Amino acid sequence: MNRYLGLLLTVVLALTISACKTKPKDGGGVDTSTTTNTQQVDPNANNAFDTGYSAEDLLNRFGIEGDPLNYTILYFEYNSSAIDERSRIIATRHAQVLAQRGGANVNLEGHADERGTRDYNLALGERRAQTVSSLMSAIDGSSRIQTISYGEERPADPAHTEAAWQQNRRVEIKY
């Protein structure tokens, strides 16, 4: 189910970005003037896959405001290199732009928080960067994507708190 949702959001994102950005005048895309309990979707609204929600609404559910291309940091859970849906959307958008540019260079910098040994954190940062690289390469095989792991060596936040550790578990996309 998560894979289907990821694919669905990727397609929604691609359609949204390639389409003209116009908002329906009623703001919601749902016709509530009917006398029945069923809601009818306005066919002229920015409606993503007949869900009644616009692609913008779906992106907002993942905390993405505007173009996902504006985000260059992907965050990970503790001790994990699995990419979540929010990060998948962002990485997919970057890969689409790279495909349009036809072979640009991009560096993916993997990071970890300070917990764990130095060697473990370097390996974890590398796995995170490779996960993003695999996703982006599947969409755009023409770009030169390089990965590097800094492990715990370059923290975004040097504090020793859970909030700081969350900021440090990341992959940064650098052009």
Summarize this, please?
With 175 residues, the protein is an alpha+beta fold. 40% of the residues lie in helices and 15% in strands. A four-stranded mixed beta sheet has the order 3-6-4-5. A two-stranded antiparallel sheet has the order 1-2.
Structure characterization notes:
This protein has helices spanning 2-18, 55-61, 85-101, 118-139, 162-168, and strands at residues 30-31, 40-41, 73-75, 105-111, 144-151, 170-174. It has 175 residues and is an alpha+beta fold. The protein folds into two domains: 2-61, no CATH class; 68-174, OmpA-like domain (60s Ribosomal Protein L30, Chain: A, 2-Layer Sandwich), CATH 3.30.1330. The protein has a four-stranded mixed β-sheet. A two-stranded antiparallel ribbon has the order 1-2. α1 packs across α2. The longest helix is centred in the last third of the chain and has 22 residues, at 118-139. It is globular, with a radius of gyration of 19 Å. The model is unreliable at 17-45 and 47-52 (pLDDT under 50).
Strand content: 15-25%
Subunit organisation of the chains: single chain
Characterize the biggest β-sheet: 4 strands, mixed
> How many separate helices?
5
- Kindly identify the CATH topology of the largest domain: 60s Ribosomal Protein L30, Chain: A
- Uncertain regions: pLDDT < 50 for 5+ in a row? 17-45, 47-52
Distance between the ends: 32 Å
Following the backbone from N to C, one meets helices and strands in this order, namely HEEHEHEHEHE
Query: How many domains, in number, for the residues?
Result: 2
CATH architecture of the largest domain: 2-Layer Sandwich
- Rounded mean pLDDT is 78
- Please report the first level of CATH classification, the CATH class of the largest domain: Alpha Beta
The 3D shape can be described as globular
| Spatial arrangement of strands, main beta sheet | 3-6-4-5
Count of DSSP strands: 6
Which homologous superfamily in CATH is the superfamily of the largest domain?
Answer: OmpA-like domain
Indicate the percent of residues in helices: 40-55%
Question: Which structural class do you get from the secondary structure elements?
Answer: alpha+beta
Rg over C-alpha atoms, rounded to the nearest angstrom: 19 Å
